Amino acid sequence: MKKQLFFITCISLMVSQSVFAQFPVLFEGEWKLELLTIDGEDFVPPMNDEVEMIGLVFEEESEGIPPVFDTYVCNGFFGFLSFQEETGMLPSFSFDEYSMTLIECDLSENSVFENLYFNFYLNGIEDVFEYDIIYLGNAPTLSVYNTNGDAAFYGNPFLSLRDNTLPSFSIYPNPVQSQLYIETDSQEDYTITVFDIQGRMLITTSKEALGINSIDVQHWKSGLYFLRIEDQKGKVTAKRFLKN
């Protein structure tokens, strides 16, 4: 595992000059955590009935809402980001705001890893995080580094597959006052979960495949909400919307 980590780091330094050409890839699909390195020790994410994968989604700035960072283990970790120009050899981002849900993991191994993973970001939450995107063949790898010298490495299986048949989801209107509509070309049923800006889960509901579905937000407070859509294959799509 150590040899693999050294190999990835060396390639990252060699191709760092081309990172800005790859920058849009950061916002494409969902990144899957493959390795976490804390104080020089490697930790492999758990895979079990409770945690099938640890995902990370970046959402671009839209409708006046800053870029969004959204990752999860048992709990969700959300944040608004600012992106900086290169501070050294790599570009970077920082958190302007963040919040987490408060759900207990059923399995202790998931709780232990979740604490390690979230603390990778929390321990440097006031600082910048440098990142790099490299390609091994057609498979992109995202590397994120905190100021303590720790690192998180993500793959992107959906970009690697280059599968244009993956379902798409759109939500409207945004901002919304009463009914939020979800439109998809997915051939499978899917689950919608909505969180508020404090990370509290408001609803989780199953929806039928294809066509247009909706959720009633008429009586919700005004503000920003995060919507997570998961299909039966485990693919997660993250959206956000404003309630007026």
From TrEMBL:
InterPro entries (UniProt xref):
Secre_tail
Which keywords fit this entry according to its UniProt record?
Answer: Signal
Signal sequence residues: 1-21
Keyword check for Signal: yes
Q: Where is the Secretion system C-terminal sorting domain?
A: 171-240
Q: Keyword Iron, does the record have it?
A: no
Q: Name one Pfam family in it.
A: Por_Secre_tail
Family matches, as NCBIfam families: Por_Secre_tail
Name of the molecule in the record: Por secretion system C-terminal sorting domain-containing protein
